[in-house]
Amino acid sequence: MKRYFLEHRDNTDAFYAYMDKLQESGRAIVIDPTNSDSEEQAIAQMQERLGLNHNPVNE
Questions:
Q1: In angstroms, rounded to a whole number, what is the distance separating the alpha carbons of residues 49 and 23?
Q2: What tens-digit pLDDT sequence spans the chain (59 residues)?
Q3: How big is the CA angle at 26 (ends 29 and 38), to the nearest 5 degrees?
Q4: CA separation for the pair 39, 42 (Å, rounded)
């Protein structure tokens, strides 16, 4: 599905299907533009998944 989505970027149905699949798998990290803490939370999630304990946002 990822390959199809990347090859057909103008296909909105493919985009939403791919995003739904990512969210169902738990691999999607979403930044909510209406939540000021959302970006920091997303960075923390990415660092946790990568096994990093260091948070440069708070420095």
A1: 15
A2: 678 777 888 889 888 888 888 888 877 787 888 988 988 888 888 888 888 865 555 55
A3: 25
A4: 5
User: Rounded to two decimals, what is the model's pTM?
Assistant: 0.48
Q: Which two tokens stand for residue 35?
A: 């939540």
How far apart, in whole angstroms, are the C-alpha atoms of residue 48 and residue 30? Answer: 15
Length of the chain: 59
Q: Give the residue carrying structure tokens 């296909």.
A: 11
Nearest to 44 by CA among 24, 29, 26: 29
Q: How far apart are CA 26 and CA 32, in angstroms?
A: 16
